[in-house]
Amino acid sequence: MDRIPVAPLKSSSFSAATSREEKLARNLSLGPIKLNEHIKEAQKEKAAAVDNAGEAGADAVPEEAAEPDLAALSAEIDAFLAAPRDGDAPPAVSEVTLDRFASAVEQEIAQSEGTDNKWAPNEAGDAPPLLTAIKRLAALASALTADNTAPGGATTYTIGVHRVTGVLHRAMTFVEDEFHGMLEDPRVAKVAPQAADTGSATGRSMKRPPSFGHGAELDRCVVPTAFGDASPPFPPETVGRLRAMAEAMFAAGYETECTQVFLVARRNALDASLQSLGYEKASIDDVVKMPWEALESEIATWIKAFRHTVEVDLPGERDLCAHVFAAGGQQRCLGRDIFADLAHCAMLHLLNFTEAVVLTKRTAEKLFKVLDMYEAVRDAVPLVDAFLVPPAADDGEGEGAGAGGPVATADEDGGGSGSASTALVDLKHELASVRTRLGESAAAIFCDLESSIRAEAGKQPVPGGAVHPLTRYLMNYLKFACEYKKTLEQVFQEYRRPDDDDAEHGGGDPFTAQLMEVMELLHGNLEAKSRLYKDPSLSSIFLMNNGRYMLQKIRGSPEINAVVGEAWSRKRSTDLRQYHKNYQRETWSRVLNLLRDDGVITVKGHVQKQVLKDRFKQFNAAMDEIQRTQGSWVVSDEQLQSELRVSIAAVIVPAYRSFLGRFSQHFTAGRQTEKYVKLSGEDLEAIIEELFDGNAVSMPRRRT
Length: 704
Hints:
This protein is an all-alpha fold. Among the domains are: 1-202, no CATH class; 456-581, no CATH class; 597-689, Monooxygenase. 63% of the residues lie in helices and 1% in strands. It has a two-stranded antiparallel sheet with strand order 1-2. A hairpin with a 2-residue loop joins strand 1 (602-603) and strand 2 (606-607). The longest helix is centred in the middle third of the chain and has 38 residues, at 418-455.
């Protein structure tokens, strides 16, 4: 009998070339592959068996000139597989048929390499022919192995088992590589042969991530640059092909390899999505040492990446797992386990960043970024809760992953698997823990404002009685904080300090009570700082400036105005009026007294000229001093500045005009008048108009 011909290996995927063996012998999930040695050994055994049969005088049966095609061989294999195996002797199939069928499948795979539609079904709803052939090969390998291990059948198909299992193993490598490439980039299924990196799909997809290799610089999926491409959706036809590949690998007993490839490919895709959003992994030490300007930018990027992961990427991964692993209860449970692992890994990595931020030194400017992170984590909780509910898998192929399919409370296999539920529950607890730490950090930062105000005890007064930097900083800070009013109320309700229980303000709301405490502390601090001025009038200007600035900020912001309340604003308005009165009394009452005839200037109807001269001298000196000093004082609020000038002019100018009109004629015209009457009414108005603009000038000469 002639030797059974072994079909030549037809393509690069099934070549005996050394380079191919070296590639496949890498530390892939399928392990090192050395099938050529098995095939050579099987061929030697078969040749020896045929030679022995010839020596015994057995008649050799010539083979047919034309070998049957894959369809005919498949029919013969199906008949073998369908035959009952409950008898004493298992059903028979010739070694020639086994070899020819293995070669035909090998040929089918080789011809499919580099083609664009190798995974497309002939008819809608059917499995792709290539996968059908591979699944038939897997069923044959299983049956042959079972027959060989049956009593009396230990060597029935020695050569056939080597041949079939060898081709199956290499076919699974091919499927695994295709599976990996399609998972890393859903667009890979639409790449034309000439666009591939190598001459075959296997060559292209063999470029594995470092987790599969030995740390070499290997290709990963392309990182998109546009935000919308960060997590490209899988077309429905691609999802169907992925599902068919997974079913084939499961049928062949390669479920471990299938899940490993899926996990690594999708982890890489999630990493690529984060990179496309500008987020880079950083250690806790790096974050803690980062300057605030850099950390602020990193936090903004983190928030964008975190929200995109929770709202876009993970729901897409959940749907993909549900659709790819949709064949039966076992696969569905495994799909949920895979998704739980993906979600757990992706989220824990992101949450580690929040831990690092909380460990940084607490400063007031970090409050708002911490609150932004708190809101992102808080808003993610219901989405993670939804992940705990198993999705309803669609057994058809009309819906792609990421489509946001329906959610069911349970399915026919009795709900989610234990490991998936545990991983997601752990993730939920981790989210709650991170949220707590962020909330506590935010509350502590806001409460630290009290310490900042008490520590601000500078002994140098602000020049010109201007608005104090502490007032500007705190009022703008509180205004911005009130834009986070609802979040801060939630934070203080959940993480309120024990001494906040007897809050006196805001009807028991701890955030309002804390804010009002800060406002009162600021008010008291400003009153203390006003006493640093030796001039009581300047103290009043300082209090007016700062009080007016506080009121303007409150009334200009509906958020802070709603927290502070109208009663507090009215009280501060009353204080402002009192400061104004104090200023008028301290500065201008003395000037007005000089313009009154109090019985000293006119005695018994006669003007005491020397007393009149002294009065004009005193008035001129007083106005010169006011212009010199108060011209350097600052009132930055234009409305307050105008109010002060108008109120001063309304009192002083009419009184001076009256005094001037009554007594100026008692001086001799010429030098005497110029010596004592240095200001006209218009000159006095001009002096008043130049007050409080920060520019001290000398008193002008009398206008002529």
